[in-house]
Amino acid sequence: MSSNRERGRLGRSLALRLGLWHAALFGVGAAVVFVAVYVLLARALDAREREALEVRAAEYADAFEAGGVTAMRALLERRAGAAARAFAARARRRTGRGRDLCQGA
After folding, report:
1. Please, are residues 85 and 102 in contact by the beta-carbon 8 Å criterion?
2. Between the CA of residue 73 and those of 9, 57, 77, 86, what are the distances in Å?
3. Cα 66 to Cα 46: distance, rounded to the nearest angstrom
4. CB atoms within 10 A of CB 63
5. Which of 1, 6, 84, 96 has the greatest number of C-beta atoms within 10 Å?
6. How far apart are CA 14 and CA 4, in angstroms?
7. Secondary structure of residue 100 in the 3-state scheme
8. SS3 of 96, please?
9. Neighbours of 100 (CB within 10 A)
């Protein structure tokens, strides 16, 4: 009789230990996958941002070489105006209001 009890306890403790090992391995595996995806996405976004900055810097350098400070100022003003219009369009879409938020209240 006592051997049946010991087998029952041993079976339950073995099942518990196997279940805990399975849960631990799954947790570690999920963490590794999460870290890998995070690192890959961070690198991809960094490369994308770096490329965009290099393109913009080349545009500014070309404008400066072509027309000096005045051409650079004109390019900066055009970009600022375009950014303000894009912000206003996004704000109108989000709020549903028809007025241009960049022109004041």
Report:
1. yes
2. 81, 14, 6, 20
3. 30
4. 19
5. 84
6. 15
7. coil
8. coil
9. 13
Give the pLDDT confidence of 38-88 residue by residue, as tens digits. 999 999 999 999 999 899 889 888 988 999 889 888 888 888 888 777 767
- Is the pLDDT score of 99 beyond 60? no
Distance in Å from the first CA to the final CA of the chain: 86
Q: What are phi and psi of 93, to 5 degrees?
A: -65, -40
Residue 28 has pLDDT above 80, yes or no: yes
Alpha helices in the chain (DSSP H): 2-95
Question: Which tokens sit at 18?
Answer: 């196997």
Rounded CA separation 4/81 (Å): 83
